[in-house]
Amino acid sequence: MRNYLLGSLLTIGLSFSIFSEVKAATISLDFDRLPNQQGWIRESNRSGTAFSVDGTKLIQNSIGRGSFVKTFRMNNVIDPDKHFTLSFTARYLNQEVVSSTVSTFSFVVYLYDANRRFHLAFGRSAFQNRVDTSVFNDYRLEGSFSTGVASLYINDTFIRDFNTETVRDSRNFIGFGDSTYTANAHAELTNFTFTQKEISAVPEPLTILGTGTAIAFGAGFKRKLAKTKKK
């Protein structure tokens, strides 16, 4: 009986051995169509467009358009409790101050959730003295709204940590574009990907093998016990 119980417990123990499989929900941008043709919402203060695509990149050129604002956003795609990675490849070629030198965020990439935001603003920014923004660089922002902190990497080099900022917009969305009336810019994107990871528990391959082995051991113990009783 003791051997039988040992075999049964071995079976149960191995059956509950699991590992975490990471699944990713990803939003990415194509460059053969404008974002609003891919499900993004276009917001602008005037008609006409400052954006175009050429199959390999998205081009923003709002220079010469006065107090021009144009952004693209995708609503309700951020889970604030999950870790996110926002990566994009961009260059910032030119800027035109229109009405003020206070805010020159003429190209920005941002994440919003419930009066909080992370944003990377090209113009006057905390990282422009670290890299040449007029050439293509790989930018990566990793963090979560639950911690309120995100880390910026440029070309896989850590630059700095950002804390969430309090804002008046209570919506949940990701977005990019020319977000201010005070300046315009010529900028280009060749990659834009937002990923959030979710973890689900699934049986480990070795666990399945181990469970089968344990069952076989259990059956063996039972047969041995039955033979002992017959004797």
Task: Give a written overview of the molecule.
The chain is α+β, with helices and mostly antiparallel strands and 231 residues long. It is 17% helix and 46% strand. The protein contains two helices and 14 strands; from the N terminus they run H-E-E-E-E-E-E-E-E-E-E-E-E-E-E-H. It has helices spanning 2-15, 205-230; strands at 18-28, 41-44, 51-53, 58-61, 70-75, 84-97, 107-113, 116-122, 137-144, 149-154, 157-163, 165-166, 173-178, 183-203. Residues 4-22 have low confidence and may be disordered. InterPro entries: ConA-like_dom_sf, Cyano_PEP, Ice-binding_C. Residues 1-24 form the signal peptide.
* Major sheet characteristics: 8 strands, antiparallel
Number of strands: 14
SSE order? HEEEEEEEEEEEEEEH
Shape: globular
The number of domains: 2
Which class of the largest domain in CATH terms? Mainly Beta
Which stretches are low in confidence, meaning pLDDT under 50 for 5 or more residues running?
4-22
